[in-house]
């Protein structure tokens, strides 16, 4: 091989080596991308915990941001921020980032004592601040993570109590795990304290998403996996809970509308009643006025009747007086002319006209004329 051919061969070898290096780098980058940000080396590797599932975190921390992002984007955001120590997800599309994190506790399942309902990852430089790691063993409890949005499960069952102690849920859970006779643990909150109940011989298990009393299910907890065949009622699924919530909201809306309608009707009836009362008051007032006018009319009528009676009496008297006058005139006409009102005898003595001895009161014009007469004289 001449010198020129040797040089060409060397160049080809170098190019081949460079091609291999480039391909290897591309492979490594591709592998890292496929692994995803949630398994990035900047975070503590938790794949050996909780069967490789979600890690729920509790700790003291300060919030950096809350954004609408998926978990991969959230992990990248925290990785690119040197102040970010932990990222957590409150739901698949809500990202929380934190700084100044301490007293970190890790759990395989969500819970409330202490609050650890968000899942995510902790950066490697925070490992010294972890005070509690999750279990590396498979959970001995029946998995309820797909029920009730991962919240507490409330249980009613036939069982025999084993023990009652005051401790948090994680300790209670572990106590039941350590006791092969324990089939179920339940938590009770009383006077601000957590009470742990452990049970054996569990059967007829009913599970609920909300506490209630028919049948009683006010304690929450978990049932061991070997008790699954004794479960007679599973908690509601997410779809069922949504349907229940929609039905509840619809019922509340209908109740509000019904109450508004009843209020409007009551107001209308009250207004109508007020109008009727006002009209009734007016009618009563008019009736009182009519009664008063009727009384006045009756009084005037009585007066008129009295006046009519007086007029009738006067009319009768007038008729009597007229008759008396007529009689007097007849009597006077019989008297002799020589003497007024008398008759002259042979001795020229007046013979008086003989009238009655009664006294008559004769009204004439506006005066009363008294007529007195007797057997001896007559005065007009």
Any descriptors?
single chain, 380 residues, alpha+beta, Hepatocyte Growth Factor, 4 helices, 19 strands
Can you put this structure into words, describing what you see?
A hairpin with a 2-residue loop joins β11 and β12. The protein contains four helices and 19 strands. By secondary structure, the chain is of the alpha+beta class. The strands form six sheets. Strands 1, 2, 3, 6 and 7 form a five-stranded mixed β-sheet that branches. The termini are far apart. It is elongated and about 210 Å long.
* Helix and strand pattern: HEHEEEEEEEHEEEEEEHEEEEE
Total number of beta strands: 19
Estimate percent helicity.
Answer: 25-40%
Residue-averaged pLDDT: 80
Structural class, from secondary structure content? alpha+beta
* Low-pLDDT residue spans: 27-39, 336-342, 355-380
CATH topology of one domain: Hepatocyte Growth Factor
Q: Report the sheet-strand fraction.
A: 25-35%
């Amino acid at each position: 091989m001449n010198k020129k051919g040797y040089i060409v061969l060397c160049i080809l070898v170098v190019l081949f080596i460079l091609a291999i290096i480039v391909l290897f780098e591309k492979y490594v980058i591709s592998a890292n991308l496929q692994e995803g940000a949630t398994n990035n080396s900047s975070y503590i590797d938790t794949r050996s915990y909780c069967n490789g599932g979600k890690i729920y975190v509790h700790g003291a921390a300060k919030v950096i941001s809350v954004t609408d992002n998926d978990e991969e984007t959230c992990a990248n955001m925290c990785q690119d921020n040197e102040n970010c120590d932990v990222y957590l997800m409150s739901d698949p599309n809500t990202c929380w980032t934190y700084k100044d994190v301490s007293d970190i506790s890790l759990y395989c399942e969500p819970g409330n004592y202490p609050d650890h309902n968000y899942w995510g990852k902790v950066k490697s430089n925070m490992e010294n601040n972890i005070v509690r790691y999750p279990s590396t063993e498979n959970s001995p409890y029946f998995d309820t993570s797909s029920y009730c949005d991962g919240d507490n499960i409330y249980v009613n069952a036939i069982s025999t109590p084993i023990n009652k102690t005051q401790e948090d849920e994680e300790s209670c859970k572990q106590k039941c795990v350590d006791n092969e006779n324990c089939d179920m643990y339940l938590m009770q909150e009383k006077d601000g304290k957590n009470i742990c109940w452990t049970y054996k011989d569990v059967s007829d298990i009913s599970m609920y998403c909300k506490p209630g009393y028919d049948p009683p299910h006010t304690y929450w907890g978990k049932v061991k996996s070997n008790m699954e065949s004794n479960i007679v009622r599973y908690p509601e699924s997410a779809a069922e809970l949504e349907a229940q919530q929609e039905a509840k909201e619809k019922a509340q809306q209908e109740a509000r509308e019904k109450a508004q309608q009843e209020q409007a009707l009551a107001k209308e009836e009250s207004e109508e009643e007020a109008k009727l009362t006002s009209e009734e008051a007016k009618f009563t007032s008019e009736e009182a006025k009519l009664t008063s006018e009727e009384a006045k009319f009756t009084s005037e009528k009585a007066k008129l009747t009295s006046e009519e009676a007086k007029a009738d009496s006067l009319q009768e008297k007038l008729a009597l007086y007229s008759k008396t006058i007529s009689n007097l005139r007849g009597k006077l006409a019989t008297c002799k002319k020589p003497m007024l009102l008398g008759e002259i005898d042979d001795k020229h003595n007046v013979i008086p006209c003989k009238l009655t001895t009664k006294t008559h009161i004769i009204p004439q014009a506006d005066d009363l004329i008294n007529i007195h007469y007797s057997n001896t004289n007559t005065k007009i």
